[in-house]
């Protein structure tokens, strides 16, 4: 049983498979925003440029991943090679490790 719990008119009910009362999906898309410039990150090239400016270095060992490491820290950012599979989990990982430079917003 999967879905979303909806509270309406004092009644809580489970709406199956995330469908709202009107049949629309409740899922929201997220976007990673570079905070100083206010620009939405739309490609790995843009992201890599911003991360390099913050002192991150890219590892080229695994072609299935984009990996970044910061010298003097234990942090590692691992992202899928296909930008289409770049999800909110990956976005929040970047935000946590670069608190003042990135944020995640609803689109």
Automatic annotation (TrEMBL):
Protein name according to UniProt: Flowering-promoting factor 1-like protein 1
Example GO biological process: regulation of flower development
Family note: Belongs to the FPF1 family.
Organism: Miscanthus lutarioriparius
Domain of life of the native organism: Eukaryota
InterPro entries, sorted: FPF1
